[in-house]
């Protein structure tokens, strides 16, 4: 793409610009890798010492770094440089990536009863089932499958090879990365004479607006009621969401987390990678769970929780972990005391 003017960025996204508005910008770069045609950002105050050596055409900084940034050259001041960078990345992508063409690709198979908005984009080898619905400006990538009565909201984008099962729904402005499966059967079996009898999964999956789902994540349909992902939830890659789970609005969950059936996770929670959450438990709003934590019981109060032996509130877990590191020395001291007359 042709360079953009620094002034165009400030005009589109705001901020207090100090520098030549006509300065050409060709890319967004990390602070240390930026050259004279790049714009960079400083989000962590402890990296302020790197400003002087930064070669970027312009640096996005908070007011606290104003003087140091101005001493090196062009500067964009903003209260939250990381948020500014996020918005800049979206603006940049919209300018650099062409919009998906509206219409249905010649190789797609669309059931005659499906409703596909004329502004939507249906890619190569897509299958759209009976009575499915694709709303305005939605993008359905190559090799996707929409089951019967599935629904994709306005401006939602499904990347390649996504499966949205029968009767499953995703709202507006969602982003679903490659390989995601929404609406596979939940893991339900009844034991009988040493064997397993399948329990048909009769529910669906309901996903709200502004939800992002990472590559190869699986969200199972409910056994009777729906599995529910509320508005604004962000799911990383390779997450397993079992049947009848409910995840509250604006919760973010990192990769490799497993959530067992009928767990309830509150709003505005943050769950670290490879956490494990048992089924039929409840997690309150505004809970933070550290990576690799094994959640075996309900969490009723907001806070930061960690651990695997078992998990606990973070402060208690850190004290216990420190004690565990001293067990060998403590054992030797106890033995020595036991030997005294």
Description of the molecule:
By secondary structure, the chain is an alpha/beta fold. It has 2 domains: 4-96, Udp-n-acetylmuramoylalanyl-d-glutamate--2,6- Diaminopimelate Ligase, Chain: A, domain 1, CATH 3.40.1390; 103-318, UDP N-Acetylglucosamine Acyltransferase, domain 1 (3 Solenoid). The chain is 16% helix and 29% strand. The strands form 6 sheets. Strands 8-11-14-17-20-25-28-31-34-37-39-40 form a 12-stranded mixed β-sheet, with helices on one face. Helix 2 (66-72) links the parallel strand 6 and strand 7 (74-77). The termini are far apart. The model has no long low-confidence stretch (mean pLDDT 95).
Short structural description:
By secondary structure, the protein is an alpha/beta fold. The chain contains 5 helices and 40 strands.
Compile the SSE list and pairings.
Elements: E1 4-5, H1 6-13, E2 16-18, E3 24-25, E4 27-28, E5 38-41, E6 58-61, H2 66-72, E7 74-77, H3 81-96, E8 103-104, E9 109-110, E10 115-116, E11 121-122, E12 127-128, E13 133-134, E14 139-140, E15 145-146, E16 151-152, E17 157-158, E18 163-164, E19 169-170, E20 175-176, E21 181-184, E22 189-192, E23 195-198, E24 205-207, E25 212-213, E26 218-220, E27 227-229, E28 234-235, E29 240-241, E30 246-247, E31 252-253, E32 258-259, E33 264-265, E34 270-271, E35 276-277, E36 282-283, E37 287-289, E38 294-295, E39 303-306, E40 312-313, H4 314-325, H5 327-339
Parallel strand pairs: 4-5, 5-6, 6-7, 8-11, 9-12, 10-13, 11-14, 12-15, 13-16, 14-17, 15-18, 16-19, 17-20, 18-21, 19-24, 20-25, 21-26, 24-27, 25-28, 26-29, 27-30, 28-31, 29-32, 30-33, 31-34, 32-35, 33-36, 34-37, 35-38, 37-39
Antiparallel strand pairs: 1-3, 2-7, 22-23, 39-40
């Amino acid at each position: 793409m042709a360079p953009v003017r620094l002034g165009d960025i400030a005009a589109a996204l705001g901020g207090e610009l100090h520098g030549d508005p006509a300065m050409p910008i060709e890319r967004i770069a990390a602070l240390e890798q930026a050259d004279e045609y790049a714009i960079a950002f400083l989000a962590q105050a402890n990296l302020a010492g790197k400003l002087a050596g930064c070669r970027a055409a312009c640096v996005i900084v908070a007011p606290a770094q104003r003087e140091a940034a101005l001493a090196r050259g062009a500067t964009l001041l903003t209260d939250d440089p990381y948020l500014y960078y996020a918005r800049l990345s979206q603006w940049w992508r919209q300018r650099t990536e062409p919009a998906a063409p509206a219409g249905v690709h010649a190789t797609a198979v669309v059931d005659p009863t499906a409703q596909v908005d004329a502004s939507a984009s249906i890619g190569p080898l897509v299958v759209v089932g009976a009575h499915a619905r694709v709303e305005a400006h939605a993008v359905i990538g190559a090799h996707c499958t929409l089951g019967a009565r599935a629904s994709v909201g306005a401006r939602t984008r499904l990347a390649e090879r996504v499966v949205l099962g029968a009767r499953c729904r995703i709202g507006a402005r969602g982003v679903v990365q490659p390989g995601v499966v929404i609406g596979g059967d939940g893991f339900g079996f009844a034991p009988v004479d040493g064997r397993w009898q399948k329990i048909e999964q009769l529910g669906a999956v309901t996903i709200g607006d502004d939800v992002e789902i990472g590559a190869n994540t699986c969200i199972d349909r409910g056994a009777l009621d729906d599995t529910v992902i509320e508005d604004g939830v962000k799911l990383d890659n390779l997450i397993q969401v079992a049947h009848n789970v409910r995840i509250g609005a604006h919760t973010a969950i990192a990769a490799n987390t497993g959530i067992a059936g009928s767990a309830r996770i509150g709003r505005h929670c943050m769950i670290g990678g490879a956490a494990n959450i048992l089924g039929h438990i409840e997690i309150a709003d505004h809970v933070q769970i550290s990576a690799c934590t094994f959640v075996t019981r309900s969490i009723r109060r907001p806070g930061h929780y960690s651990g695997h032996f078992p998990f606990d509130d973070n402060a208690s877990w850190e004290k216990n972990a420190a004690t565990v590191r001293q067990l060998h020395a403590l054992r030797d001291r106890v033995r020595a005391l036991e030997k005294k007359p």
